[in-house]
């Protein structure tokens, strides 16, 4: 009888310990959830790739006017300056911004996990890309510009028909190539692996002209192909809605980042940076059809 009582007491005691443990575990779980919720939309947001810092993907190298001195940390150039303005809006200090430069452009826009919270590298928002990645709101819609050698037939072009007389080239996988083929309806566009190859082909006389976003064209004609010039501005591609920040598909940070981006857009910060870094200092002829 005594033995049975002892056993029963032990069973009751074990049950009480188990219940206490479960209660403590439940409380810990609740505290963890509450703690996580409190950190959302702060610099310690657990959804960040590295909580405590904002990790931003970009290219290697980076070029003016997007970033100066091949240094995204400089805060100079349109994209670098905009990211630091956005980071400040979100509550991050300057030293809490980390730049991830390990991916090529194709790797950046490909589906799958990303080593950054979002990327900025003149990425156009298109319906095709939106199938595999997410984008922020559009923050820039640059004009397309025609870059040509002074001996090209397109220097005095005033219509799409005039433009079709030239030998054109573009970089594979870009909206520039899409523009030539689908908007200007250029046939037999010479295709190159990268932008440098396209400009080398122009310098070598293999092609006479290419198209690029106006800010890219400004830098290219100042530095990369100084013998060439911007001869015309073209209408936008209706399939290219402009540049956006790129996120891994279904990234729940998008809404928070959009709020910060929309805030600096509405205050005129982005327009001021466009004026400072991306606009030409002279009038350029426009071709609309």
Structure commentary:
The protein folds into two domains: 54-140 and 241-277, Periplasmic binding protein-like II (D-Maltodextrin-Binding Protein, domain 2, 3-Layer(aba) Sandwich), CATH 3.40.190; 144-234, D-Maltodextrin-Binding Protein, domain 2 (3-Layer(aba) Sandwich). It contains nine helices and ten strands. The protein has a three-stranded parallel sheet, covered by helices on one side. The N and C termini lie far apart (103 Å). Helix 2 (78-90) packs across helix 8 and helix 2 packs antiparallel against helix 9 (269-277). Helix 5 links the parallel strand 6 and strand 7 (190-192). It has 289 residues and is of the alpha/beta class.
What secondary-structure arrangement, pairings included, does this model have?
Elements: H1 2-39, E1 54-57, H2 78-90, E2 97-100, H3 105-109, E3 118-119, E4 133-135, E5 144-148, H4 160-163, E6 169-171, H5 175-183, E7 190-192, H6 195-203, E8 209-213, H7 214-224, E9 229-234, E10 246-248, H8 254-266, H9 269-277
Parallel strand pairs: 1-2, 1-3, 6-7
Antiparallel strand pairs: 4-10, 5-8, 5-9
Helix pairs in contact: 2-8, 2-9
């Amino acid at each position: 009888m005594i033995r049975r009582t002892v056993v029963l007491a032990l069973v009751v005691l074990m049950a009480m310990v188990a219940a206490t443990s479960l209660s403590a575990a439940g409380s810990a779980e609740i505290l963890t959830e509450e703690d996580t919720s409190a950190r959302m939309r702060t610099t310690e947001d657990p959804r960040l790739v590295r909580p405590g810092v904002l990790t931003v993907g970009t290219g290697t190298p980076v070029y003016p006017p997007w970033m100066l001195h091949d240094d995204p940390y400089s805060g100079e150039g349109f994209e670098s300056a905009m990211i630091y303005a956005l980071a400040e809006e979100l509550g991050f200090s300057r030293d809490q911004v980390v730049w991830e430069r390990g991916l090529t452009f194709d790797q950046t826009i490909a589906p799958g996990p990303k080593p950054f919270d979002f990327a900025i590298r003149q990425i156009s928002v298109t319906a095709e890309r939106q199938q595999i990645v997410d984008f922020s709101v559009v923050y820039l819609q640059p004009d397309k510009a025609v870059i040509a050698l002074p001996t090209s037939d397109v220097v005095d072009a005033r219509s799409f028909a005039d433009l079709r007389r030239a030998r054109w080239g573009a970089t594979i996988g870009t909206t520039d190539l899409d523009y030539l083929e689908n908007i200007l309806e250029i046939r037999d566009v010479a295709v190159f692996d990268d932008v440098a190859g396209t400009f080398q082909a122009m310098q070598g006389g293999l092609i006479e002209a290419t198209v690029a976003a106006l800010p890219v064209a400004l830098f290219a004609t100042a530095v990369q192909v100084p013998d060439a010039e911007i001869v015309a501005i073209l209408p936008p591609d209706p399939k290219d809605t402009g540049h956006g920040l790129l996120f891994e598909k279904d990234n729940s940070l998008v809404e928070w980042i959009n709020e910060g981006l929309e805030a600096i857009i509405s205050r005129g910060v982005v327009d001021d940076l466009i004026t400072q870094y991306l606009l030409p200092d002279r009038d350029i002829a426009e071709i609309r059809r």
